[in-house]
Amino acid sequence: MRWRFTLLCLFFLLIGSSSSLTQASHLGVGNAANEGCQCHTYSSATEIFLEGIPQRFESNITLNVTLRIESDVELNEDNHAGGFRLEYIGGGSIGILDETMTQFLDGYLTHTENGSAYRSWQFEWKTPEDNSTSVKFKIFANAVNGNNQSTGDGWSALSVTIPGLSSNEDFNSKTNQEIELFDLILLAFGLLILGYLLWTSFRSN
């Protein structure tokens, strides 16, 4: 029974350590992306930029931030061009500047149907009152070619941590490739531990 339990743990570790993929929709993306989806292909040529942010924030100020995608995926100006889902973690808040371009779905900031015709969106960021803390922006974005299929599109991910002026943390920006590398290291470490547990389980039987 012990080795069966160990194999079950290994299975859930493999499932939990798989790379996060976005589930794209021209209507916006909320909780539907939480479990991941392989309907679109990751592309290192799709880059996400967060413009208008400082490397350290001042307390209680309001900034206009631009989220922009650059990609080699062909832009079809008469159809859908891209989309995103942004999760904000920390004090302060983010807000909508143009309701025709962005919206909140399930607590995430995402594009609207009209906003899916673009690859650049703006939103408002009100920084926390406590500048000894830090905040994080976790973004999935997808550049699409407008053929209404998953083929030919390319998604990417970006995680940005911004500390306050009095915080001991450092500014940090990680792309999807860097996030995946961490996941692989964590997975390898977990496999080594579970392999040892499995070996000891067989020896004791």
What does this structure look like?
The structure is a single chain. With 205 residues, this protein is α+β, with helices and mostly antiparallel strands. The protein is built from two helices and ten strands, in the order H-E-E-E-E-E-E-E-E-E-E-H. The strands form two sheets. The protein has a six-stranded antiparallel sheet. A four-stranded antiparallel sheet has the order 1-2-7-4, with no helix packed on it. The longest helix has 29 residues, at 176-204. The radius of gyration is 20 Å and the shape is flat. Mean pLDDT is 78; it is low at 3-24 and 34-38.
What secondary-structure arrangement, pairings included, does this model have?
Elements (H helix, E strand, L loop, with lengths): L1 H15 L30 E5 L10 E9 L11 E8 L3 E4 L5 E4 L2 E4 L8 E7 L7 E10 L10 E10 L8 E4 H29 L1
Antiparallel strand pairs: 1-2, 2-7, 3-6, 3-8, 4-7, 5-6, 8-9, 9-10
The global form is flat
What is the quaternary state of this protein?
single chain
Number of strands: 10
The description of the largest β-sheet is: 6 strands, antiparallel
Low-confidence stretches: 3-24, 34-38
Helix-residue proportion: 10-25%
Widest sheet, order of strands: 5-6-3-8-9-10
Strand-pairing-aware structural class:
alpha+beta
Mean pLDDT: 78
Number of helices: 2
SSE arrangement, N to C: HEEEEEEEEEEH
| Straight-line N-to-C gap | 10 Å
Beta fraction: 25-35%
Radius of gyration: 20 Å
